[in-house]
Amino acid sequence: MPAREYDGGxxxxxxxxxxxxxxxxxxxxxxxxVTVIETWGSAPRPPGALLAMREDGQVAGxxxxxxxxxxxxxxxxxxxxxxxxxxxxxxVTKEEAARFGLPCGGNLRLVQEPLxxxxxxxxxxxxxxxxxxxxxxxxxxxxxxxxxAASRGDxxxxxxxxxxxxxxxxxxxxxxxxxxxxxxxxQMALGLDFEVTVCDPREEYHxxxxxxxxxxxxxMPDDLAIxxxxxxxxxxxAVTHDPKLDDLVLLEALKSPAFYVGALGSxxxxxxxxxxxxxxxxxxxxxxxxxxxxxxxxGSRTPAEIAVSILAEIVAVRNGVALKQKKPVPAAA
Length: 333
Known about the structure:
With 333 residues, the protein is α/β, with parallel strands linked by helices. It is built from eleven helices and 15 strands. The protein is 33% helix and 22% strand.
């Protein structure tokens, strides 16, 4: 899939699993969906993680990273056919946890359900394509599914009778600049299930951008930031080295609820940038939100290594983890 002009939406990994399940079903295959509903200990996949499984054992997605999938596939191949939504538990004992590769005695509860009518998947794909966040509600007793609107503050939920899972772009990343570093950053961020939008109005850059799965905009960075309505699920990364572009987006992003705002540059350049930003209508607290120099200190030198350091910092901020691996601020002379 080529890079696309900015249109407000794109598929997430969960949506790809649903699309594959729908296609298998329409080809006449029996298909089951398996959803993680609860974990304890160090189970490797979070609630809401999704797996689609075909009758011949082909799978899309993951609920454990491998070992539990192997058992589910083995059951299907041996003729086990779940006819209604059913609960499945793994790792109840330490011996089972070791057998299924759940570290530190982790436990995993799943809902396994047969996929019948796939019309609801079409609805999910259509609505998320319009940049909507939707919830799929499954009634375990009847197997009925309904789709309803959701908001970014919602979370996966299971009360023993109903399962409510979210689909659609939840975490977004706006990258300013379409150079070599941006290419590495975008490719890695897609793997972390970010919706990635790259913005660069410079013709020599936007003509050569071709990273599959990303959205591309030739708008001015500040205009695009306003259009995107940056929210607490959005990260903004400015890496053009051109103050005329980077500072434009920072003026909007630092006033927004974006959970992460960072800009490439040395400590000296970052200090100068903050002095420039102070000339505009930004408070000291807003300017202090800027992550710069960007990324964690892992000795990065190549574009790929720098991208790793930036993404590591973004994930740490998103997860509320203290940024201990930062370059120390030099003592005052």
